[in-house]
Specification:
mainly alpha; two-stranded antiparallel sheet; elongated
Amino acid sequence: MHSNGIHIMNHSIDFILLNLGGKCVLNWALVILQRNHICRSFVGIFSVSLTVIDTALTLIFTIIYLHGDGRCFLLGLQLTKYHICLLVQIIGEVYSVLQYPVVVMTGLDHFCTTSQRLQTATSRLKGIFKSFVSIILWYLAFLYIFLLSDFLPVLEDVSHHQIYQCWIFHVFQILQVAMLMFLTLGSAAFFTRCSPRLFKNPRQVNQITDQSRSDSRRSVVSQALGIFLNTWAIFLFFLAALLVLPVGIPSYLGLNVAWLCFLNSFLIGVVLCVVCPDSKLAQGLAAVPPDSFCEWKFKFSLAKEDSA
């Protein structure tokens, strides 16, 4: 049990390396898939940094494991299998700490894009700024783990020649974010399906314009919800299963590019529904953040467009 009451699990080092290797392959596949536009958004730049860090750590862990008898040295420090367990726990805590900051920064980035803030800045300057923010987030996360948190590693009291398993913490932040997502999706579904019936009242002349705008906004939310669900329905079922079943997610797997792509699509849909004017969406003039999975195209009837 962790000092904060967070549950831990016991994984073999072979299993950890296999999971990390699979995670790296998935990360690189998704980065390559989005290579044409991945550096245009904060979440894309952060995904690249995460992929590089995961790959470097996997290589380091593999080298240490293959030389687990103590013949591996780094800067004069003798590295053993103990260090694999220690580093896996540390990086898992860092990934857990980064969940909410990444969500917030991605949402702010999409808000600036759709509301067309910072228009005067060049794309290169924006990329440099987003890269700088990514570096700062990584730095602050490590700083928090080492100096401010009450994180305590859990290691077996055996010789490094006899250690074959590591204690791994569960990550709960991803489940918390998933719960907030389901609440948001449920609220959107309620707004599109139930609100017209509950709040229906006779139209007056001075309410026609407001009603028309409300109908247009409801159409935007309905279409955005449909676009998102058509793409990510299977992933949502998987998240729902994780929320219902008593299973834990290893902390070193909690932050990955697939999860970031899912977050990206969800936050794009939220920002488009909240920020972007209906008229721009109807005319296809909205500045939509890059998304390799969802095609954010909205359709409006001519009658609704004219009344709006």
